[in-house]
Amino acid sequence: MENNWLQSFIESIRNSQLLRVLLIGFLILLLQIPIVMIRGVILEREATRNEAVRDVTSSWGETQSILGPWITVPYLHHRVDKRASKNQKGFTHTETQYATFLPEKLNITGTASSEVRYRGIFQVPLYSLSLVVSGRFSKPDFSAWGTNANDILWDQAHLSFGVSDSKGITEQTGLKWNNNELGFFPGSGESSRTKPGIHVPLRNVLKGEAFDFSFPLAVNGSQGVFFMPFGRETEVTLTSNWPNPSFKGNWLPSKHLVNSDGFEAIWNIPFLGRNYPQQWKTGVDFKGAVEASQFGVNFLAPIDHYRMGHRSIKYAALFVVLTFITLWLFEILNGIRIHSLQYLLLGAGISVFYLLELSLAEHLGFVTAYIVASLAIVLLLVAYSVVVLRSPKKASIIGVIMAILYSYLYIVLRSQDYALLIGSIGLFVVIASIMYLTRKINWYGPKVQ
Q1: Hey, how many other C-beta atoms are within 10 angstroms of the C-beta on 364?
Q2: Quick one: which of 178, 109, 80, 176 has its CA closest to 138?
Q3: β-pairing, 210-222 with 122-138?
Q4: CATH of span 63-302
Protein backbone atom coordinates (compact mmCIF):
# COMPACT_ATOMS: atom_id res chain seq x y z
CA MET A 1 0.00 0.00 0.00
CA GLU A 2 2.79 2.38 0.93
CA ASN A 3 4.69 1.61 -2.30
CA ASN A 4 1.58 2.24 -4.36
CA TRP A 5 1.09 5.60 -2.67
CA LEU A 6 4.74 6.60 -3.33
CA GLN A 7 4.54 5.45 -6.91
CA SER A 8 1.34 7.40 -7.39
CA PHE A 9 2.92 10.52 -5.87
CA ILE A 10 5.97 10.31 -8.15
CA GLU A 11 3.76 9.76 -11.17
CA SER A 12 1.63 12.79 -10.29
CA ILE A 13 4.80 14.91 -10.12
CA ARG A 14 5.95 13.62 -13.49
CA ASN A 15 2.57 14.41 -15.03
CA SER A 16 2.26 17.87 -13.46
CA GLN A 17 2.58 20.49 -16.19
CA LEU A 18 3.30 23.18 -13.61
CA LEU A 19 6.26 21.30 -12.18
CA ARG A 20 7.42 20.48 -15.70
CA VAL A 21 7.39 24.17 -16.63
CA LEU A 22 9.25 25.04 -13.41
CA LEU A 23 11.89 22.43 -14.21
CA ILE A 24 12.33 23.79 -17.75
CA GLY A 25 12.63 27.30 -16.28
CA PHE A 26 15.37 26.07 -13.95
CA LEU A 27 17.24 24.52 -16.90
CA ILE A 28 17.02 27.82 -18.77
CA LEU A 29 18.52 29.62 -15.77
CA LEU A 30 21.25 26.98 -15.55
CA LEU A 31 22.19 27.60 -19.18
CA GLN A 32 22.82 31.27 -18.42
CA ILE A 33 26.11 30.19 -16.81
CA PRO A 34 27.81 29.23 -20.12
CA ILE A 35 26.22 32.25 -21.80
CA VAL A 36 27.79 34.55 -19.19
CA MET A 37 31.12 32.78 -19.70
CA ILE A 38 30.90 33.30 -23.47
CA ARG A 39 30.12 36.96 -22.90
CA GLY A 40 33.34 37.13 -20.87
CA VAL A 41 35.25 35.55 -23.77
CA ILE A 42 33.90 38.23 -26.11
CA LEU A 43 35.06 40.94 -23.70
CA GLU A 44 38.48 39.31 -23.41
CA ARG A 45 38.95 39.03 -27.17
CA GLU A 46 37.79 42.61 -27.63
CA ALA A 47 40.35 43.77 -25.06
CA THR A 48 43.04 41.81 -26.89
CA ARG A 49 42.02 43.49 -30.16
CA ASN A 50 42.11 46.93 -28.53
CA GLU A 51 45.58 46.22 -27.16
CA ALA A 52 46.77 45.23 -30.64
CA VAL A 53 45.29 48.46 -32.06
CA ARG A 54 47.05 50.55 -29.39
CA ASP A 55 50.32 48.76 -30.10
CA VAL A 56 50.18 49.66 -33.80
CA THR A 57 48.81 53.19 -33.45
CA SER A 58 51.31 54.13 -30.74
CA SER A 59 54.05 53.72 -33.36
CA TRP A 60 52.21 54.98 -36.44
CA GLY A 61 50.02 57.75 -35.05
CA GLU A 62 46.81 57.88 -33.04
CA THR A 63 43.55 59.68 -33.74
CA GLN A 64 44.60 63.18 -34.83
CA SER A 65 43.00 66.40 -33.62
CA ILE A 66 44.08 69.36 -35.74
CA LEU A 67 44.04 72.67 -33.86
CA GLY A 68 44.71 76.10 -35.27
CA PRO A 69 46.61 77.93 -36.45
CA TRP A 70 46.68 80.84 -34.00
CA ILE A 71 48.97 83.76 -33.23
CA THR A 72 50.34 84.31 -29.75
CA VAL A 73 51.70 87.74 -28.81
CA PRO A 74 53.34 88.18 -25.37
CA TYR A 75 52.82 91.46 -23.49
CA LEU A 76 53.84 92.94 -20.17
CA HIS A 77 51.17 93.11 -17.50
CA HIS A 78 51.73 95.52 -14.59
CA ARG A 79 50.03 94.70 -11.32
CA VAL A 80 50.10 96.83 -8.16
CA ASP A 81 50.52 94.93 -4.89
CA LYS A 82 47.69 96.30 -2.72
CA ARG A 83 48.88 94.54 0.42
CA ALA A 84 51.21 97.46 1.34
CA SER A 85 50.49 99.38 4.56
CA LYS A 86 48.92 102.84 4.60
CA ASN A 87 52.31 104.54 5.00
CA GLN A 88 53.87 102.63 2.12
CA LYS A 89 53.40 102.82 -1.61
CA GLY A 90 52.21 99.69 -3.36
CA PHE A 91 54.79 97.69 -5.27
CA THR A 92 54.30 97.18 -9.00
CA HIS A 93 54.83 93.66 -10.30
CA THR A 94 55.48 93.12 -13.98
CA GLU A 95 54.84 89.75 -15.55
CA THR A 96 54.64 88.38 -19.06
CA GLN A 97 51.21 87.32 -20.25
CA TYR A 98 49.97 86.11 -23.60
CA ALA A 99 47.26 87.17 -26.02
CA THR A 100 45.79 84.69 -28.52
CA PHE A 101 44.44 85.74 -31.93
CA LEU A 102 42.58 83.51 -34.38
CA PRO A 103 42.51 83.83 -38.19
CA GLU A 104 39.83 85.74 -40.06
CA LYS A 105 39.69 83.06 -42.71
CA LEU A 106 40.76 79.42 -42.49
CA ASN A 107 40.75 76.84 -45.28
CA ILE A 108 41.95 73.28 -44.73
CA THR A 109 42.07 70.83 -47.61
CA GLY A 110 43.07 67.27 -46.85
CA THR A 111 43.43 63.90 -48.53
CA ALA A 112 43.55 60.82 -46.32
CA SER A 113 45.02 57.72 -47.92
CA SER A 114 43.67 54.86 -45.80
CA GLU A 115 44.87 51.31 -45.41
CA VAL A 116 44.37 48.37 -43.08
CA ARG A 117 47.34 46.93 -41.20
CA TYR A 118 47.28 43.66 -39.27
CA ARG A 119 48.67 42.78 -35.87
CA GLY A 120 48.17 39.05 -35.77
CA ILE A 121 44.56 38.46 -36.83
CA PHE A 122 43.38 41.95 -35.84
CA GLN A 123 42.72 44.74 -38.32
CA VAL A 124 43.92 48.29 -37.61
CA PRO A 125 42.69 51.11 -39.91
CA LEU A 126 45.47 53.65 -40.55
CA TYR A 127 45.78 56.70 -42.78
CA SER A 128 48.35 59.10 -44.20
CA LEU A 129 46.91 62.61 -44.26
CA SER A 130 48.16 65.33 -46.59
CA LEU A 131 46.91 68.77 -45.56
CA VAL A 132 47.13 72.22 -47.09
CA VAL A 133 46.29 74.89 -44.51
CA SER A 134 45.72 78.45 -45.72
CA GLY A 135 43.89 81.60 -44.71
CA ARG A 136 44.31 85.17 -43.53
CA PHE A 137 45.10 86.89 -40.23
CA SER A 138 44.38 90.48 -39.34
CA LYS A 139 47.04 92.32 -37.38
CA PRO A 140 46.65 91.52 -33.66
CA ASP A 141 44.72 94.34 -32.00
CA PHE A 142 45.19 95.13 -28.29
CA SER A 143 43.00 98.25 -28.27
CA ALA A 144 40.03 96.49 -26.65
CA TRP A 145 42.18 95.73 -23.60
CA GLY A 146 43.84 99.15 -23.27
CA THR A 147 47.34 97.68 -23.37
CA ASN A 148 50.18 100.17 -23.67
CA ALA A 149 51.89 99.88 -27.08
CA ASN A 150 55.31 99.79 -25.38
CA ASP A 151 54.29 96.69 -23.39
CA ILE A 152 53.56 94.59 -26.47
CA LEU A 153 56.45 92.23 -27.23
CA TRP A 154 56.06 91.97 -31.01
CA ASP A 155 59.52 90.41 -31.42
CA GLN A 156 58.39 87.35 -29.41
CA ALA A 157 55.17 86.71 -31.32
CA HIS A 158 54.74 83.31 -32.92
CA LEU A 159 52.24 81.28 -34.92
CA SER A 160 51.26 77.87 -33.54
CA PHE A 161 49.56 74.84 -35.04
CA GLY A 162 48.37 71.97 -32.87
CA VAL A 163 48.66 68.28 -33.81
CA SER A 164 47.45 65.99 -31.02
CA ASP A 165 49.96 63.25 -31.84
CA SER A 166 52.90 65.18 -33.23
CA LYS A 167 55.06 62.07 -33.69
CA GLY A 168 52.80 61.31 -36.66
CA ILE A 169 54.23 64.28 -38.61
CA THR A 170 56.18 62.70 -41.44
CA GLU A 171 57.70 65.61 -43.40
CA GLN A 172 59.37 68.94 -42.78
CA THR A 173 57.19 71.91 -43.64
CA GLY A 174 57.51 75.67 -43.98
CA LEU A 175 55.14 78.61 -43.61
CA LYS A 176 54.47 80.98 -46.46
CA TRP A 177 53.60 84.31 -44.76
CA ASN A 178 52.75 86.99 -47.32
CA ASN A 179 56.02 87.09 -49.26
CA ASN A 180 58.12 85.43 -46.56
CA GLU A 181 59.20 81.80 -46.16
CA LEU A 182 59.50 80.77 -42.50
CA GLY A 183 60.52 77.48 -40.91
CA PHE A 184 58.57 75.60 -38.27
CA PHE A 185 59.96 74.38 -34.96
CA PRO A 186 58.74 71.55 -32.69
CA GLY A 187 56.21 72.35 -29.98
CA SER A 188 53.37 74.84 -29.86
CA GLY A 189 55.45 77.67 -28.45
CA GLU A 190 56.28 79.27 -25.13
CA SER A 191 52.69 80.05 -24.13
CA SER A 192 51.32 76.54 -24.71
CA ARG A 193 54.08 74.10 -23.87
CA THR A 194 51.63 71.34 -22.95
CA LYS A 195 49.98 71.34 -26.39
CA PRO A 196 51.73 69.12 -28.94
CA GLY A 197 52.27 70.64 -32.34
CA ILE A 198 54.58 73.00 -34.23
CA HIS A 199 55.26 76.75 -34.20
CA VAL A 200 57.11 79.46 -36.12
CA PRO A 201 58.44 82.79 -34.76
CA LEU A 202 56.93 85.95 -36.33
CA ARG A 203 59.63 88.39 -35.20
CA ASN A 204 59.72 90.84 -38.08
CA VAL A 205 56.75 89.89 -40.21
CA LEU A 206 53.80 91.45 -38.34
CA LYS A 207 54.05 94.73 -40.21
CA GLY A 208 50.89 95.48 -42.09
CA GLU A 209 47.16 95.11 -41.61
CA ALA A 210 46.54 91.64 -43.06
CA PHE A 211 48.63 88.52 -43.57
CA ASP A 212 47.96 85.65 -45.96
CA PHE A 213 49.45 82.34 -44.95
CA SER A 214 49.66 78.78 -46.19
CA PHE A 215 51.63 75.65 -45.43
CA PRO A 216 51.43 71.91 -46.20
CA LEU A 217 51.49 69.22 -43.56
CA ALA A 218 51.84 65.43 -43.87
CA VAL A 219 50.77 63.45 -40.84
CA ASN A 220 50.02 59.82 -40.03
CA GLY A 221 47.06 58.84 -37.91
CA SER A 222 44.57 56.09 -37.19
CA GLN A 223 40.86 55.54 -36.66
CA GLY A 224 39.85 59.20 -37.10
CA VAL A 225 40.77 62.84 -37.71
CA PHE A 226 39.16 65.92 -36.18
CA PHE A 227 39.42 69.70 -36.63
CA MET A 228 38.54 72.85 -34.69
CA PRO A 229 36.86 75.88 -36.37
CA PHE A 230 39.45 78.53 -35.48
CA GLY A 231 38.62 80.88 -38.35
CA ARG A 232 35.94 83.54 -38.39
CA GLU A 233 35.13 81.67 -41.58
CA THR A 234 36.22 78.03 -41.53
CA GLU A 235 36.02 75.61 -44.44
CA VAL A 236 37.40 72.09 -44.28
CA THR A 237 37.43 69.75 -47.27
CA LEU A 238 38.44 66.14 -46.71
CA THR A 239 38.63 63.29 -49.22
CA SER A 240 39.61 59.70 -48.60
CA ASN A 241 39.54 56.25 -50.16
CA TRP A 242 37.91 54.83 -47.00
CA PRO A 243 34.35 53.73 -47.92
CA ASN A 244 32.88 53.59 -44.40
CA PRO A 245 33.18 57.02 -42.75
CA SER A 246 31.35 57.96 -39.56
CA PHE A 247 31.00 61.74 -39.32
CA LYS A 248 31.25 62.92 -35.72
CA GLY A 249 31.56 66.05 -33.65
CA ASN A 250 29.78 69.34 -33.18
CA TRP A 251 29.00 69.76 -36.89
CA LEU A 252 28.15 67.38 -39.70
CA PRO A 253 29.39 68.09 -43.23
CA SER A 254 27.37 70.63 -45.19
CA LYS A 255 28.08 68.47 -48.25
CA HIS A 256 29.27 64.90 -48.49
CA LEU A 257 29.49 62.06 -50.96
CA VAL A 258 30.10 58.45 -49.92
CA ASN A 259 30.51 55.47 -52.25
CA SER A 260 32.54 52.29 -52.59
CA ASP A 261 35.59 54.30 -53.73
CA GLY A 262 35.69 56.48 -50.61
CA PHE A 263 34.17 59.75 -49.49
CA GLU A 264 34.39 63.51 -49.87
CA ALA A 265 33.08 65.87 -47.19
CA ILE A 266 32.96 69.67 -46.85
CA TRP A 267 32.35 71.53 -43.59
CA ASN A 268 31.50 75.24 -43.50
CA ILE A 269 31.53 76.49 -39.90
CA PRO A 270 30.25 80.00 -39.07
CA PHE A 271 31.92 82.18 -36.46
CA LEU A 272 28.67 82.43 -34.48
CA GLY A 273 28.35 78.67 -34.23
CA ARG A 274 31.19 78.21 -31.74
CA ASN A 275 31.40 79.23 -28.09
CA TYR A 276 34.64 81.25 -27.98
CA PRO A 277 35.79 84.61 -29.42
CA GLN A 278 38.41 85.58 -31.98
CA GLN A 279 40.90 86.70 -29.35
CA TRP A 280 41.57 86.31 -25.64
CA LYS A 281 44.39 86.74 -23.19
CA THR A 282 45.91 85.09 -20.11
CA GLY A 283 43.38 84.51 -17.37
CA VAL A 284 40.57 83.41 -19.68
CA ASP A 285 40.31 79.67 -20.28
CA PHE A 286 38.45 78.49 -23.39
CA LYS A 287 40.02 75.01 -23.41
CA GLY A 288 36.72 73.24 -22.76
CA ALA A 289 34.86 75.27 -25.40
CA VAL A 290 37.59 74.62 -27.97
CA GLU A 291 37.59 70.87 -27.36
CA ALA A 292 33.78 70.79 -27.55
CA SER A 293 33.88 72.45 -30.99
CA GLN A 294 35.74 69.67 -32.76
CA PHE A 295 34.30 67.94 -35.80
CA GLY A 296 35.57 65.30 -38.18
CA VAL A 297 35.31 61.67 -39.15
CA ASN A 298 36.08 58.22 -37.80
CA PHE A 299 37.37 55.50 -40.11
CA LEU A 300 35.27 52.55 -39.01
CA ALA A 301 35.51 48.91 -40.01
CA PRO A 302 32.44 47.89 -42.06
CA ILE A 303 31.31 45.47 -39.35
CA ASP A 304 32.81 45.19 -35.89
CA HIS A 305 32.30 41.51 -35.07
CA TYR A 306 32.92 42.11 -31.35
CA ARG A 307 30.13 44.66 -31.24
CA MET A 308 27.96 42.22 -33.20
CA GLY A 309 28.91 39.50 -30.72
CA HIS A 310 27.78 41.65 -27.80
CA ARG A 311 24.51 42.42 -29.53
CA SER A 312 23.76 38.86 -30.63
CA ILE A 313 24.44 37.26 -27.24
CA LYS A 314 21.76 39.49 -25.72
CA TYR A 315 19.27 37.26 -27.54
CA ALA A 316 20.79 33.98 -26.27
CA ALA A 317 18.26 33.56 -23.46
CA LEU A 318 15.39 34.20 -25.87
CA PHE A 319 16.68 31.53 -28.25
CA VAL A 320 16.90 28.99 -25.44
CA VAL A 321 13.41 29.87 -24.18
CA LEU A 322 11.82 29.55 -27.63
CA THR A 323 13.56 26.27 -28.36
CA PHE A 324 12.55 24.78 -25.01
CA ILE A 325 8.97 25.98 -25.45
CA THR A 326 8.87 24.23 -28.83
CA LEU A 327 10.11 20.99 -27.26
CA TRP A 328 7.67 21.37 -24.38
CA LEU A 329 4.79 21.80 -26.86
CA PHE A 330 5.83 18.55 -28.51
CA GLU A 331 5.66 16.92 -25.08
CA ILE A 332 2.16 18.05 -24.18
CA LEU A 333 0.63 17.92 -27.67
CA ASN A 334 2.16 14.65 -28.86
CA GLY A 335 2.79 12.83 -25.60
CA ILE A 336 6.58 12.68 -26.14
CA ARG A 337 8.79 12.53 -23.05
CA ILE A 338 12.06 14.47 -23.25
CA HIS A 339 14.66 14.03 -20.53
CA SER A 340 16.13 17.03 -18.72
CA LEU A 341 19.63 16.14 -19.91
CA GLN A 342 18.38 16.22 -23.48
CA TYR A 343 17.06 19.73 -22.87
CA LEU A 344 20.47 20.73 -21.49
CA LEU A 345 22.36 19.28 -24.46
CA LEU A 346 20.14 21.14 -26.94
CA GLY A 347 20.59 24.33 -24.91
CA ALA A 348 24.36 23.82 -24.87
CA GLY A 349 24.31 23.56 -28.66
CA ILE A 350 22.47 26.88 -28.88
CA SER A 351 25.00 28.49 -26.52
CA VAL A 352 27.98 27.26 -28.54
CA PHE A 353 26.69 29.22 -31.55
CA TYR A 354 27.91 32.54 -30.09
CA LEU A 355 31.39 31.19 -29.41
CA LEU A 356 31.56 29.64 -32.86
CA GLU A 357 30.34 32.87 -34.47
CA LEU A 358 33.02 34.94 -32.72
CA SER A 359 35.93 32.60 -33.41
CA LEU A 360 35.04 32.27 -37.10
CA ALA A 361 34.41 36.03 -37.47
CA GLU A 362 37.99 36.79 -36.44
CA HIS A 363 39.18 34.90 -39.52
CA LEU A 364 36.32 34.94 -42.05
CA GLY A 365 34.45 38.16 -41.32
CA PHE A 366 31.09 38.50 -39.59
CA VAL A 367 28.71 37.65 -42.44
CA THR A 368 30.46 34.43 -43.49
CA ALA A 369 31.00 33.43 -39.86
CA TYR A 370 27.34 33.97 -39.02
CA ILE A 371 26.15 31.85 -41.94
CA VAL A 372 28.58 29.00 -41.21
CA ALA A 373 27.90 29.02 -37.45
CA SER A 374 24.11 29.14 -37.81
CA LEU A 375 24.08 26.33 -40.41
CA ALA A 376 26.30 24.17 -38.22
CA ILE A 377 24.12 24.65 -35.15
CA VAL A 378 20.86 24.11 -37.05
CA LEU A 379 22.19 20.83 -38.51
CA LEU A 380 23.45 19.76 -35.08
CA LEU A 381 20.10 20.45 -33.39
CA VAL A 382 18.12 18.76 -36.16
CA ALA A 383 20.33 15.64 -36.03
CA TYR A 384 19.96 15.37 -32.26
CA SER A 385 16.22 16.17 -32.36
CA VAL A 386 15.69 13.14 -34.63
CA VAL A 387 16.81 11.00 -31.69
CA VAL A 388 15.03 13.03 -29.01
CA LEU A 389 11.68 13.32 -30.82
CA ARG A 390 11.97 9.95 -32.58
CA SER A 391 10.68 11.51 -35.79
CA PRO A 392 12.56 13.17 -38.69
CA LYS A 393 9.42 15.16 -39.46
CA LYS A 394 9.22 16.65 -35.97
CA ALA A 395 12.99 17.25 -35.98
CA SER A 396 12.65 19.15 -39.26
CA ILE A 397 10.16 21.45 -37.54
CA ILE A 398 12.83 22.24 -34.96
CA GLY A 399 15.26 22.95 -37.82
CA VAL A 400 12.83 25.28 -39.57
CA ILE A 401 12.14 27.17 -36.33
CA MET A 402 15.87 27.56 -35.59
CA ALA A 403 16.57 28.68 -39.16
CA ILE A 404 13.85 31.31 -38.85
CA LEU A 405 15.26 32.45 -35.49
CA TYR A 406 18.82 32.83 -36.84
CA SER A 407 17.55 34.64 -39.94
CA TYR A 408 15.48 36.88 -37.70
CA LEU A 409 18.49 37.59 -35.46
CA TYR A 410 20.63 38.49 -38.48
CA ILE A 411 18.03 41.01 -39.63
CA VAL A 412 17.92 42.52 -36.13
CA LEU A 413 21.73 42.79 -35.98
CA ARG A 414 22.02 44.46 -39.38
CA SER A 415 19.05 46.81 -38.83
CA GLN A 416 20.15 48.54 -35.65
CA ASP A 417 17.79 51.51 -36.14
CA TYR A 418 14.78 49.16 -36.34
CA ALA A 419 15.98 46.53 -33.85
CA LEU A 420 13.46 47.49 -31.16
CA LEU A 421 10.54 47.49 -33.61
CA ILE A 422 11.53 44.17 -35.19
CA GLY A 423 12.15 42.62 -31.78
CA SER A 424 8.80 43.79 -30.39
CA ILE A 425 6.88 42.44 -33.38
CA GLY A 426 8.74 39.13 -33.24
CA LEU A 427 8.06 38.70 -29.52
CA PHE A 428 4.36 39.47 -30.06
CA VAL A 429 4.14 36.83 -32.80
CA VAL A 430 5.83 34.24 -30.57
CA ILE A 431 3.52 34.85 -27.61
CA ALA A 432 0.45 34.83 -29.86
CA SER A 433 1.56 31.52 -31.42
CA ILE A 434 2.07 29.91 -28.00
CA MET A 435 -1.35 31.10 -26.87
CA TYR A 436 -2.94 29.64 -29.98
CA LEU A 437 -1.19 26.27 -29.73
CA THR A 438 -2.00 25.84 -26.03
CA ARG A 439 -5.57 27.13 -26.13
CA LYS A 440 -7.15 23.65 -25.69
CA ILE A 441 -4.77 22.26 -23.11
CA ASN A 442 -6.30 21.08 -19.82
CA TRP A 443 -3.77 22.52 -17.38
CA TYR A 444 -5.30 20.44 -14.55
CA GLY A 445 -4.58 17.13 -16.21
CA PRO A 446 -2.28 15.46 -18.68
CA LYS A 447 -4.89 15.01 -21.42
CA VAL A 448 -5.94 17.43 -24.14
CA GLN A 449 -9.65 18.17 -24.36
Answers
A1: 15
A2: 178
A3: antiparallel
A4: 2.60.40
